[in-house]
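Consortium newsletter contribution from the modelling node. Members have asked for a concrete example of what our holo predictions look like. Here is one, prepared for the zinc ion complex that several groups have been discussing at recent meetings.
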Amino acid sequence: MSSNALFDTVPSGGAALTIRRPDDWHVHLRDGAMLAAVLPYTAAQFARGLIMPNLVPPVTSVAAAAAYRERILAARPSGSDFLPLMTCYLTDHIAPDEVEKGHAEGVWIAAKLYPAGATTNAHHGVTDIPGIAPVLERMEKIGMPLLIHGEATDPAVDIFDREAVFMDQSLLPLLKRHPGLKVVIEHVTTAETLDIVRANAPRVAGTITPHHLMINRTSIFQGGLRPHLYCLPVAKRERHRLALRKAATSGEGCFFIGTDTAPHARGAKESACGCAGVFVGATALQSYAQVFDEEGALDHLEAFASLNGARFYGLVPNAGTVMIEKRKSRVAASIAVGDQEVVVFRGDEDLAWSIAEAKPRRWSIDLRRGFV
Ligand code: NCD
Ligand code: ZN
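And here is the predicted structure:
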């Protein structure tokens, strides 16, 4: 067990675990009314979040990222010290100087590579990865991590093979071409990708979502079509889910939280052509805790949730703590967004774990001035 994790018995008789406040290294907060509705959930669970840039239009300039960061800060519930860490959306045409400028000014800490058309709002993404070599070389030089949505976009590729094909055809050659580039393979869904992460650690890391630890591809069709379990990369076979659970709970430093919380209005999901994305922001930590408990690995939860990601990004871990209890809790089935609603992953279900209390950290980070 890590020195910071404390097991206690709570009055209800269940176990409780105190860990450093965790970070979410992959979060879609959206904008406007949706941002205001979903941010409180992420801010209640995580001290920092790495904010995905796939807005409409995407966050492709330093000015756009700085303005988006201000909107997130302004949307925080009162008293929240949640810190948004920003990312840059790579296109075929983004200039290496712009990417470096945002990094040097502390506006963004990483850049996101969406293969064009791979997922929600990815149509401005990269069509030719070797074509952005000058950007990747610059990132390699300045130590700026590249975050990759690793799926092939050729419509002829079977949807369940898209991650594997991307790894073979695009990721492995990219790692060879850029041997010093730090890379996060996001929302890993296959056993083979986990092995690629391990083989290339520590300069390569992988994030794992709560839902890919809990559902497999059959869950999406259990008793009928379950559009709220559809996300990209799509969940795979059971053997992959089991491998993901082993990896996340293993204590290996190359794996950490990225919830990929991705809210869409109910109508956009329950549709003839439903959007990809699961809103997991309200039940993420409870779900991770349950998985670690089921795997007998609660002593590794703090590393996965609060230490490994910070180490990869060269940031200090959060100083505050959160107490998680083995006590049943429930989250609402959906949350309101204007006159619409977003369905909550595992909403209105008994959760085995609950978040007892979060103590804010005693210091804050100003990315321009370092740690204060
Ligand atoms: C994400 C979204 O909705 O923005 N959807 C998803 O299925 N995960 C985009 C992404 O991360 O692929
Ligand atoms: Zn995502």
